[in-house]
Amino acid sequence: MPNDERNLETLPDGALGLIPLESCKELGLKVDKYLVGWREKRQHQHASDLAFKDYRRDSYIISTAVPRFGTGEAKGVIKESVRGYDLYLMVDVTNYSLTYSVCGHENHMSPDDHYADLKRIIAAVGGKARRITVIIPFLYESRQHKRTSRESLDCALALQELTAMGVDNIITFDAHDPRVQNAIPLKGFETVQPAYQFVKGILREVTDLKIDSDHMMVISPDEGGTNRAVYLASVLGLDVGMFYKRRDYSRIVDGRNPIVAHEFLGSSVEGKDVIIIDDMISSGESMIDVATELKKRKANRIFVVATFGLFTNGLEKFDQAVADGLTVSIKYHPRIAKVLLDNKKVKEIENYYKKCADDGATYEDIEASKKAMSSMEIILGEPSRLERLATDIHNHHVASCAGDPDRIQKAMVVCSNRKIAYALLQKFKDKYPEWFEEKKSPDGVSVTEEELKELKPMPFMAMVSSVGSNDEKDMYDYLGGHRVWCAVSAYRGSDRC
Fold this sequence. Notes:
The structure is a single chain. 35% of the residues lie in helices and 15% in strands. The protein contains 15 helices and 14 strands. It has helices at 25-41, 111-125, 154-164, 195-205, 226-236, 285-296, 316-323, 335-341, 344-358, 363-372, 375-380, 383-403, 418-431, 449-454, 473-481, and strands at residues 15-20, 64-65, 77-78, 85-90, 99-102, 105-108, 131-135, 169-173, 188-192, 216-220, 239-247, 259-265, 273-281, 302-309. The longest helix is centred in the last third of the chain and has 21 residues, at 383-403. The model is unreliable at 1-7, 331-342 and 481-497 (pLDDT under 50).
C-alpha cells in the first residue's frame, strides 16, 4: 500500500538517534532527511501513546563532537541525552580528506583515526543507550581477513572490541570476506550486496548491451571474489569466468605478496562484452592486468564494477587503460568540484565551522548558520573563480571533442543560481567570443540551401533560464529580449529547447 497509508503496529526498540561522525556527515544528513519524511507518512492508532514519544521529530541526528588536543589526542562528546535510545552510528574509515593538527603539523585522518573516533563516541554513550548499531560502509581492517603464519587478525579483533563496548549490530557493504563475522557469532552482522546497483548503473549508461551468454560474460579477478561473480551471472543468466593470481610468497611489497601472473579459468571470451566485478579497487594493478589478459583473448568491451574505488595510487592507470581501449569509461568527471577544492575561501569557512564545533557550538546551530550564510554565494560567484571555472570547462570540452571528433557532443553547465549562471556566461563571452556568434551551421559543415532555409541562427553557447522581474537590466534583456537556445557544445541543426 502507499507510504501514506501504512499502519504502524509494532513498538520501536527505543527512540531513534542518528550519529553520523564527521567522516560520514553528508551521508548522515541525507539519511536523516529520508527518515523524517518517511516517518511523517506512517500512520498508527497509538500515535499519542507515551511509548511513541519522539517517534516523529524534525531531525534524528544527535549532536556530538570529537575535539582534539594540541598533541593530536581526542575525546568523544555527546551533547544531549541518549538514555534509552536506539542509536545508529555512521563512520567512513576511508575518508582521507579530513585532517587534524598534531603539534602544529597537519595530519590526514587514517582508518585507525576514524575507528578510534568511533570508539570514543561509543564510550561517551556510556552504556545508556538501549541498542547501538554501527553502520560502517567499508569494514575496518577487512583486507586483513585471514591469518597466515604469525600475523594479527585485525578485523576480527575490531569486531570483538566493538561488541565488547556494547555494539549490538554491525552493518557494512560487500565485506571483503564475510566469514569474518564468525568472530562475533552472538551479535548481528549484515553485509549488503550492491549487485543491483551495478546492473542498474551499467544499463543506464550503456544502452546497446546484449545480456545473454552469447554476447556477455561475468569475470571474477581472483578466486576470493568468485561468489560475487557467480551471483551476478546467475541473476543475468550469463556464463562466469575467474582469474587466479600466482604470487611470489618469498617477498612482500607494500604489505602483500606481489602478483607474478594471472591465470584464467572459464570459457572463451572472444567477441563478448565482459563485466569484471570485485569488492574494491585499491591500486588498480590487478584490474588492469586482468583487462589486459581479456583483451589478449579478444574480448569486446570490458566494464569494471567495484563497490569501493579506493585508487590509492591515483587514477592515471585507469585513464590510460581507457585511452588504450582496455576498459570502457562510464565515469562522471566532476569538473566543478576540482575547481572548488582549490578555493581558499571555502577552506577558510570550513575551518571556521570546525573551530565553532570545537568551542562547543551544537550541530544544529552550525547547520542553521550554514543555511543562512550568504557568504557562500559570494564565494561561488567570485569573479576570479568564475574565470578559472570558464577556462577549465572550455579546455576540458575542447580536449574531449578533439579526442573523439566523430561523435556529436553536447554539454550543460548547471549553476547554483541564475545570477551566478549569468556572470559565468559573461566570463565565457569575454574569453571566447567566437562561441557567441549566431550562425546557422558551424564552419566547415556542408549544408544545402533547403536546409539553410529551415535552420535558424543560434550561438554555440547560451543560457536557459526564466526571467525575473528583479533581474538586473542586462540579464533581464538577455533572457527576455532574445531567443534563448539550449546550451549545447556542438551544432545539431535546429535542435533547441
